């Protein structure tokens, strides 16, 4: 067989391997929608607590609802996509961060040791860790900027007044969740379009 | 004159080679994704994947998601080694054919 195989056919096989491996590498997760969803959830919880109607329930109820919606939508979206190590790594970071943050904040709230400064410092730092780690795995500078913004908000929570901290939180949520989420959705859809064209 | 390497006949088939290369880039993939990427028919794809499974190059996992059957394929370590060997042999052959004009 080896002697009969000509140069052109061998090259064709090598090109086929390269293009198919590249197809697999192009598989990415689509998570822009989740950033937007959580951004809206932060605002909803904030407004609910601010209105003063059962404010203790505002954050746990909104966050758990957002978590359940994220889990349902993510599992539906992931069903037909191939699994990749990087996607699993990034998803794991966010899952662990979310669960730990919920447990920690609820423990602080029920122990009566939670105040706005601590909340902002903890939430900002945890989100900075998750965004920073994801950005290093995905080599995404824009997400690294979000990590810095969340860290900045945590610092304002530590050193600023309560009002400054809340303004920093609302601004960070707007830029790092809503705007970044929309930007991520546009990038993901462009990438999918390019993949489709490359495959065609 | 050094002997030229043989190409693994299980991998050499175009569709089987495409399938192994696709699976090399992901952890596991569903039948429908492999079908979309290769543009193959269900019957042909199933037959070629069966050959790769018989050779121990891929592992299959069947499950139900929302009452719909889902078939997932994953490349085994044997498959990875075989593909790497195939690429090495291919490059060696290409080098030899370039050398001899």
From the structure above, extract its key features.
heterodimer, A: 200 residues, mainly alpha, 7 helices, B: alpha+beta, three-stranded antiparallel β-sheet, 5 helices, 18% strand
Please characterize this protein's 3D structure.
- The complex is a heterodimer of chains A (about 200) and B (about 100).
- Chain A is an all-alpha fold and about 200 residues long.
- Helices cover about 85% and strands about 0% of the residues of chain A.
- Chain A is built from 7 helices and no strands.
- Chain A starts with 6 loop residues before the first helix and ends with a helix.
- Chain B has about 100 residues and is an alpha+beta fold.
- Chain B has a 3-stranded antiparallel beta sheet with strand order 1-3-2.
- Chain B is elongated, with a radius of gyration of 16 Å.
- The two termini of chain B are about 15 Å apart.
- The chains are: A mainly alpha (about 200), B alpha+beta (about 100).
- The interface of A and B includes residues 1, 13, 24 and 80 of A.
Topology:
The complex is a heterodimer of chains A (200) and B (101).
Chain A: H1 7-25, H2 32-51, H3 55-78, H4 85-110, H5 116-138, H6 141-159, H7 162-199
Helix pairs in contact in A: 2-3, 2-7, 3-4, 4-5, 5-6, 5-7, 6-7
Chain B: H1 9-12, H2 14-24, E1 29-30, H3 31-38, H4 42-54, E2 58-65, E3 68-75, H5 77-99
Antiparallel strand pairs in B: 1-3, 2-3
Short description:
The complex is a heterodimer of chains A (200) and B (101). Chain A is mainly alpha-helical and 200 residues long. Chain A contains seven helices and no strands.
Distance between the termini of chain A: 32 Å
The residue-averaged pLDDT of chain B reads 89
What oligomerization state is this entry in?
heterodimer
Q: How much strand content do the residues of chain A show?
A: under 5%
Binned, the helix content of chain A reads over 70%
Please provide the count of β strands of chain B: 3
* Greatest interface and its participating residue counts: A-B, 30 and 32 residues
């Amino acid at each position: 067989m080896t002697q009969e195989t000509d140069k052109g056919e061998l090259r064709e096989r090598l090109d086929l391997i390269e293009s198919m491996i590249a197809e697999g590498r192009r598989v990415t997760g689509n998570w822009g929608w989740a950033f937007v969803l959580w951004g809206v959830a932060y605002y909803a919880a904030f407004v609910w607590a601010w209105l003063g109607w059962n404010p203790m329930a505002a954050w746990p109820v909104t966050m758990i609802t957002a978590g359940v919606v994220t889990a349902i939508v993510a599992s539906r979206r992931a069903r037909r996509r191939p699994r990749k190590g990087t996607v699993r790594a990034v998803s794991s970071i966010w899952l662990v961060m979310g669960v730990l943050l919920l447990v920690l904040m609820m423990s602080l709230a029920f122990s009566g040791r939670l105040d706005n400064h601590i909340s902002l410092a903890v939430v900002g730092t945890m989100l900075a860790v998750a965004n920073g780690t994801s950005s290093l795995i995905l080599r995404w500078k824009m997400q690294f900027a979000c990590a810095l913004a969340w860290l900045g908000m945590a610092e304002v929570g530590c050193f600023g007044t309560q009002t400054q901290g809340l303004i920093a939180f609302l601004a960070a949520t707007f830029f790092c969740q809503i705007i970044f989420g929309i930007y991520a959705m546009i990038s993901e859809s462009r990438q999918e379009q390019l993949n489709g064209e490359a495959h065609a | 004159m050094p002997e030229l390497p043989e190409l693994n006949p299980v991998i050499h088939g175009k569709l089987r080679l495409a399938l192994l290369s696709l699976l090399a880039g992901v952890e596991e993939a569903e039948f429908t994704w492999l079908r979309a990427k290769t543009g193959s028919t269900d019957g042909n794809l199933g037959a070629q994947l069966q050959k790769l499974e018989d050779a121990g190059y891929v592992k299959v996992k069947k499950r139900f998601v929302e009452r719909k059957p889902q078939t997932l394929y994953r490349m085994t370590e044997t498959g990875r080694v075989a593909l790497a060997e195939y690429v090495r042999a291919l490059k060696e052959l290409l080098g030899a054919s370039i050398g001899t004009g």
